[in-house]
Design brief:
Elements (H helix, E strand, L loop, with lengths): L4 H8 L5 E2 L9 E2 H21 L6 H17 L5 H10 L1 H16 L5 H12 L6 H23 L6 H15 L5 H7 L3 H10 L18 H17 L5 H13 L4 H4 L4 H4 L3 H19 L8 H8 L5 E5 L2 E5 L2 H7 L8 E2 H21 L5 H13 L3 E2 L2 E2 H6 L2
Antiparallel strand pairs: 1-2, 3-4, 3-5, 6-7
Helix pairs in contact: 2-3, 2-7, 2-10, 2-11, 3-7, 4-5, 5-6, 7-8, 11-12, 11-18, 12-16, 12-18, 18-19
């Protein structure tokens, strides 16, 4: 089984890895946030390449994004410039480092398919194709540059800041073959969409409840996407189903860029209030989010953000709600139906909330809200969803 408790614990460590921690920072920059933004950018870049009739391997882009996050969690103490220099100039050392990373996972995980894929990705550097890697590298560089622009505003100007910017711009220039990078560099509307997404890093979840670590909506989105990926893999998905569940998880909170995060107890305080918030989210998304997207992308983002926790397929051009993950697996597990497991994404969303609450209590920060969340979520998931037994996951966390 891909969906092992230890795997989710390892993913969650991405919330504790700091970036740019040798510079003054307007906010904490977190590895999980960075990877979330990177994958949003990668989605945009790959969409442009599809429109140019270039073949995009979405499964490889997703695997490259998730597995790179796992690697970065393990090598957390190595600054990116040092990591890339070792990769380029000290290949034997780089190989040994990656073997050590793989052995770290080998000692903890049991699924042979996952371990084989991690070995191919981390040690052999052979799991994903060159074009997928090119898109992911471009997204990585651009996401880092947007972080740098925030840092630049509050750090004294000097040779180091100027040198960092020159190097980053030089790196981005290597990806000008991608239409999306050209559009970002010339400040087309997609640049505003990408910057809007980045604002989710400023929105702290459970904002009225002290917690360790504090997690943002942006980072939470990557956790949900990654957890959805692993849970979906255990349900033998067709490629489109895997794509929908990963990017559905990644974008499921996108409307919160215009409404801010509202904790579940407040949202569910009454059916009327929850309905009003839902309607406002969709109204504001139509006015403030969708106009920043290329028009062919809008319906897909709607598919990800409207009724995002319902199981859905597309039949004869119409979205149809499906009762269960099992029914999707039995009848609609084909690309032509564009299957979407909202129930899996919801389970991943709750899993993220559970780990947020449990981690804080484990660190000694306890509140009634956190304790109640742990009990409620655990009790709700003594069930199976598709092929995944969630009771065994929660018993192992």
């Amino acid at each position: 089984m891909f969906a092992e408790p230890i795997l989710f614990k390892e993913l969650f460590k991405g919330f504790t890895v700091l970036r740019w921690n040798d510079k003054l920072r307007p906010v904490e920059f977190i590895e999980m946030d960075k990877h979330s933004h990177k994958m949003m950018i990668a989605w945009c870049l790959a969409k442009y390449e599809e429109a140019r009739r270039n073949e995009v391997n979405w499964v490889n882009i997703i695997r490259g994004g998730v597995y790179e996050l796992l690697r970065r969690v393990v090598i957390r103490d190595i600054k990116n410039p040092i990591f890339f220099r070792i990769q380029k100039e000290y290949k034997d050392v780089y190989k040994k480092l990656n073997e050590w990373v793989f052995n770290y996972f080998k000692s903890r995980l049991s699924d042979e398919t996952l371990l084989n894929e991690l070995y191919e990705y981390i040690v052999e550097d052979a799991l994903i194709d060159d074009f997928s890697r090119y898109i992911l590298d471009a997204a990585h560089k651009y996401a880092s540059y947007l972080e740098f622009l925030l840092i630049k505003q509050i750090n004294p100007l000097g040779y180091q800041i100027e040198e960092i910017e020159r190097d980053m711009l030089k790196d981005i220039a290597r990806f000008m073959e991608l239409e999306g990078i050209r559009k970002l560099a010339t400040r087309q509307k997609v640049a505003d969409f990408i910057e809007l997404c980045s604002q989710l890093r400023f929105q702290i979840r459970w904002s009225q409840t002290p917690r360790i670590p504090r997690t943002s909506v942006l980072g939470h989105s990557m956790f949900v996407a990654s957890a959805s990926y692993f849970i979906t893999r255990d349900n033998n998905p067709c490629p489109r189903r895997l794509y929908n569940n990963f990017f559905g998880g990644l974008f499921h909170d996108l409307p919160e860029t215009v409404t801010r995060d509202i904790i579940h107890p407040v949202k569910s305080s009454s059916e009327d209030f929850e309905a009003i918030i839902h309607n406002l989210e969709q109204e504001l998304a139509e006015k403030e989010i969708y106009p920043l997207l290329e028009s062919p992308w809008v319906n897909e983002i709607r598919y990800f953000t409207q009724d995002e926790f319902l199981n859905k397929v597309v039949i004869d051009g119409k979205v149809v709600t499906i009762d269960s993950v099992e029914e999707i697996s039995e009848k609609y597990n084909k690309d032509e139906f564009s299957p979407y497991d909202g129930r899996i994404i919801r389970a991943a969303d709750h899993l993220g909330a559970y780990l947020e609450a449990k981690s804080s209590i484990d660190f000694g920060i306890r509140s009634e809200d956190l304790a109640s969340a742990i009990e409620t979520i655990r009790n709700s998931y003594q069930i199976k969803i598709g092929n995944v037994d969630f009771s065994s996951i929660y018993n192992g966390l």
